[in-house]
Amino acid sequence: MTDPHLWWYVTRASGLVAWAAMTGSVMWGVLLATRVLRSIDNPAWLRDLHRWLGGTALIMTGLHMLSLMLDSWAHFSLTQVLVPLAAGYRPWPVALGIVAFYLLIAVYGSSLLGPRMPRRFWKALHYGSYASVVLVSFHAGWSGTDVGAWGYRVVAFALLGLTTVAVLVRVLTSASAAPPPRRRPPAAPRRPMTITATYPLSCDVLGIDLSLKDGSELPLWAPGAHVTVHLPNGLQRCYSLCGDPADRCRYRIAVQRAPSSRGGSAWLHANARLGTPLDVSGPSNTFMLEPAEEYVFVAGGIGITPIKAMIDSLPAHRRWQLVYIGASRATMAFSDELQQRWPDHVSIDARDETGVRPDLARILAGSGAAVYCCGPSSMTEELAALVPAARLHIERFNAATQMPDQTGRPFDVTCDRSGTHVHVSGDQSLLEALELADIPVYSSCREGICGACEVRVLAGRPQHLDSVADNENKDGAGIMYPCVSRAHTRTLTLDL
Question: Which residues form the 2Fe-2S ferredoxin-type domain (predicted)?
Answer without folding.
Answer: 409-496
